[in-house]
């Protein structure tokens, strides 16, 4: 494997991490929004705060990692994407800022009305942010980001592939969040809440699965290069996503929540990996390949050194934080 592909693979690992960890974080906004009134929804909203509170900022480390690697290793492709896709990316950034601010401010709201307002902002921005990120991915995958010059700042991402990408991103985020929350509620002894979350997650899973696989149909005409990849070398990943999704639904039905969480992660990771593998060797589909888009060799080598240092210094604390928040000891200490 070439140096360029190694760097791109590490960068895409960051995309996967953000899709899974950040995705579960974003998806919690749906359950916050549909929790009900102040009294009946209090238990679920408290559980959401408990689940995402320790990690919601740490998850964005992966987004920063991807962006920094992209502009350092593949600067021309990064500049082209930022130029053409400035609108969805700015809207996604606005959503991230509003979401984090609302989550923090809601805890210190002076009145019930303020708490409700910040709750709506938190929930709404939690849903629109993954949509715009998915729409951005759809624009790149459908070949609507030219390497030189700017395509339409609206037409580049208001397309079938981008809309499908946005909807799939929202659905997978909600599904992941549901799987994580139901396991967390069971671990915290809230069996009634876990049962409510189980039913909602089953419905979300069925709808998301239909969107994912129905969304493949328009790709043949709207994103032929991606379609060829998904029905070719990425087909095994598509099948893994299908099987893992079905397994997750089955595990939820029989209330095996810990295992369902793992198969849900596998399903979402396979969907995202299918997109990445499906568009290879292109970085910007039909415009420039990963190898041709790469910057100086010295820069790529320096990034590999930085990756190694990050693996030693950053990954262990993050892994420990995630492990700590998924234990009974953490649940007892914070409940």
UniProtKB/TrEMBL annotation:
Keywords from the UniProt entry: Cell membrane, Membrane, Transmembrane, Transmembrane helix
Protein localization: Cell membrane
Transmembrane intervals: 6-31, 85-105, 117-141, 161-182, 202-221, 233-254, 261-282, 302-322
Annotated coiled-coil segments of the chain: none
Pfam families: Cyt_bd_oxida_II (PF02322)
Mitochondrion keyword on record: no
Major subcellular location class: membrane
Topology of this chain in the membrane: Multi-pass membrane protein
Entry's family note: Belongs to the cytochrome ubiquinol oxidase subunit 2 family.
Protein name: Cytochrome d ubiquinol oxidase subunit II
